[in-house]
Design brief:
The chain has 117 residues and is an alpha+beta fold. It is built from four helices and seven strands, in the order ββαββαββααβ. It has a five-stranded antiparallel β-sheet. Strand 3 and strand 4 form a beta hairpin. The radius of gyration is 13 Å and the shape is globular. The two termini are 19 Å apart.
Length: 117
């Protein structure tokens, strides 16, 4: 399946093999994704996380970005995450990376409702 540079918003459940088959494939070992926590929608396959902002047509505060590696591990790293991390009291570290366990649990629940690893 060929997608635009803005990615594709999932409308059906997919698996890792489906994600690997997307073209263009910007990265050899992972695919970028963005989660809209308000609508629980997921967009995949963009070159830059912010590219899907137009596809979602939503408030940036609702969007979290990450990378799903084809070996199954996930890193919630994106410039979309910076403002959420900076709002947390006592946050230390790279503001692009979500480390709060409650946030990760919530994001994983949404992501795994769309993508089977």
């Amino acid at each position: 399946m060929e997608i635009s540079s803005r990615g594709i918003i999932l409308t059906d459940n997919v698996n890792i093999d489906w994600l690997k088959a997307l073209t263009p494939q910007y990265f050899s070992d992972y695919i970028k994704f963005v989660i809209d926590v308000e609508t629980t929608r997921v967009c995949v396959g963009m070159e830059i996380h912010r590219d899907c902002e137009v596809s979602f047509d939503t408030n940036l505060d609702n969007l979290y970005g990450g990378n799903l590696y084809f070996d199954g591990h996930i890193i919630y790293e994106s410039t979309l995450n910076v403002s959420k991390n900076k709002e947390k009291k006592g946050f230390r570290g790279n503001p692009r990376i979500i480390t709060d366990e409650k946030d990760i649990e919530m994001l994983n629940a949404i992501l795994f409702s769309w993508i089977e690893l």
